[in-house]
Amino acid sequence: MDDRPMQPLKPGATIGILGGGQLGRMLALAAARLGFDCHVYCPEPDSPAFRVAARHTVGAYDDAEALATFASSVDVVTYEFENVPAAAAEVIAACRPLYPDARALATTQDRVAEKIFLSFGAGVEVAPFAAIDGEADIETAIGVTGLPAILKTRRFGYDGKGQAKVGTLDELREALERFGGDCVLEGLISFESELSAIVVRGADGLAEVYDIGENRHENHILSETIVPAPLAAETLAAARALGLAIAEKLGYVGTLGVEMFLVRDQGEERLLVNELAPRVHNSGHWTEDAAVTSQFENHIRAVAGWPLGAVTRTAPVRMLNLIGDAAADPLAILADPSARLHLYGKREIRAGRKMGHVNYLDR
Amino acid sequence: MDDRPMQPLKPGATIGILGGGQLGRMLALAAARLGFDCHVYCPEPDSPAFRVAARHTVGAYDDAEALATFASSVDVVTYEFENVPAAAAEVIAACRPLYPDARALATTQDRVAEKIFLSFGAGVEVAPFAAIDGEADIETAIGVTGLPAILKTRRFGYDGKGQAKVGTLDELREALERFGGDCVLEGLISFESELSAIVVRGADGLAEVYDIGENRHENHILSETIVPAPLAAETLAAARALGLAIAEKLGYVGTLGVEMFLVRDQGEERLLVNELAPRVHNSGHWTEDAAVTSQFENHIRAVAGWPLGAVTRTAPVRMLNLIGDAAADPLAILADPSARLHLYGKREIRAGRKMGHVNYLDR
């Protein structure tokens, strides 16, 4: 891997994006506004991001040859999801700069590595946790977390997939078997609210954090984000500082999503970090319409080695995800002329599928 | 042509765009945010808009077969420039809805037809004018406009091309010969400022007008637009009303640029309409960063038969065009973190070429 400091991309350079879903699509749109070309790599034909990019490659994430060809056709590579296989990241990084880098990927794609980094590397609080590879680890793990707890696969979980709440030893055994081992057990946290810090850090080490949002979920899928989160100024400041500290400790380049729980213990507030996403994040979609520079554009600027744009919020905003049938009648949404509608160009509405989102300014 | 009232496009429908320059590119980006696919038709290979569209066709505007194939592949057709040949418009309109429609095109692509429509159809004031097809018309024309005057080709002029200021009969003859006849002579207007009304009108007849901007030119090319124009509220209201009236009279669907001169005669203000553009307009580029809904998105909504979005301005703004070398060092522009940079992805910087623009919010 090339360890020389990154040179800013030239205008008109090509940005490679791994992943062709809505995040890749919005990254490509942001890149286009800055005059960059994009080349999107994704295993699924007809991916939404393909249709707004200068080039695309349909390829598997374990096809080293296709990945190398892709990488050599672009000037820098980034991605829309944290589950880029380590081998794929290696093939790419051997050829072109990869941002966020291999360390950010390795740290965030494994829940145990992530929690170890957070609690020991970054010194921030997380829920009690213990790795469980198999039956033999169960007793120790429960000793750490107690029951009930949440069993999660170490890798490839999202939107509540690969996790199960377990109240008894039997439930834990059953879930562990179902997941096939390689899990982490987390203590159940009784939190008051879930917050997001969307941090962006440039190749020059300068970092910014957007105003903190409060997230609400339905069926384990993000349903809405309210910004600013209706909390005390000190809480918001603490959440911002926490996000910035994590990005700094990771030596991160790009947009980073930091999910946190706000816990109240006998009146005292604590912030526990739940999860990191080394990419633009659903809870940052409000920035497209209510911030001077969106999380997408700032991610592109960061990976291009360009200076970051102002993250100043321009209005109070509520981001509502359009999941499944909620996207079936966009004209009803647009009956409100201030509704800022975003649709992802997915061909088919399916239950639980993120089809788009709406930003409501001034709420 | 199909005269039935337009049905709103279904989500994910395909919008055809004639012209692959920066306006087509920004239209395609706006369409993508709403989940539409775009198919861009343009004679030049590697056009900027091709690189953000799902499909493109390299074809000539007089290739009826290619145009028909293009039109039949999309759900509605729009364009980025007024010089779509009438025959091309006919081929397309026979096959798919074309917005803005053939009447808008015919009216605006011929300076004489435009001025006749404006003064007799819409009842608004324009500079004194007279058609000059050849030598025989010169005397009558000068009788109308006086000298000095401006000779312009009836068609295909832009950015000062195809026009000449003429102070004497000899200069007029020389320019007429150079342009090959088919011209219009316009009286020279001594104006205080040039204003733009960016109007958008939906298929349902509902129309909105953005806040009025003041334009400044260099070498006949738009250099900057200041919004709101620093003028009296009554002047701005009159300019807005004028823009709306013209769109209404044209039965227009889409975004319409209306350029006006503000003239002061012994203290009394008058607005003279200089030119119409049946498309998104350079003087409306500020709307991308300082209005709830951009002129591009509203154009797409209008031609899709979707409701318009709010045109509310969110900040004072100055739009600065990046012409030629002004785009050579984008990082210098981005040293101001509030600068909203847009680059068009043109491969080569040339003198006089529009390479991008910057919106400065709060000026």
Can you describe what's shown?
With 363 residues, chain A is an alpha+beta fold. Chain A folds into three domains: 14-98, Rossmann fold (3-Layer(aba) Sandwich); 128-187, ATP-grasp fold, A domain (Dna Ligase, domain 1, 2-Layer Sandwich); 193-361, ATP-grasp fold, B domain (D-amino Acid Aminotransferase, Chain A, domain 1, 2-Layer Sandwich), CATH 3.30.470.20. The first copy, chain A, is 28% helix and 29% strand. Chain A contains eleven helices and 17 strands. The first copy, chain A, has helices spanning 22-33, 64-72, 86-93, 102-108, 111-121, 138-145, 169-179, 233-250, 287-290, 295-303, 330-334; strands at 14-18, 37-42, 55-58, 76-79, 129-132, 149-153, 163-166, 183-187, 193-201, 207-209, 213-218, 221-227, 254-265, 268-277, 317-323, 339-343, 354-361. In chain A, strands 9, 10, 11, 12, 13, 14, 15, 16 and 17 form a nine-stranded antiparallel sheet that branches. In chain A, strands 3-2-1-4 form a four-stranded parallel sheet, with helices on both faces. In chain A, strand 13 (254-265) and strand 14 form a beta hairpin. In chain A, helix 1 packs across helix 10 (295-303) and helix 2 (64-72) runs parallel beside helix 3. Chain A is globular and about 55 Å long. The model of chain A has no long low-confidence stretch (mean pLDDT 95).
Please state the second-level CATH architecture of the largest domain in chain A. Answer: 2-Layer Sandwich
Share of helical residues of chain A: 25-40%
SSE order of chain A: EHEEHEHHHEHEEHEEEEEHEEHHEHEE
Provide the CATH superfamily of the largest domain in chain A.
Answer: ATP-grasp fold, B domain
End-to-end C-alpha gap of chain A: 46 Å
CATH class of the largest domain in chain A: Alpha Beta
Task: Tell me the total number of β-strands of chain A.
Answer: 17
| CA-based gyration radius of chain A | 20 Å
The general outline of chain A is: globular
Distinct helical segment count of chain A: 11
Structural class of chain A: alpha+beta
Biggest sheet statistics of chain A:
9 strands, antiparallel
- The CATH topology of the largest domain in chain A is D-amino Acid Aminotransferase, Chain A, domain 1
Average pLDDT across residues of chain A? 95
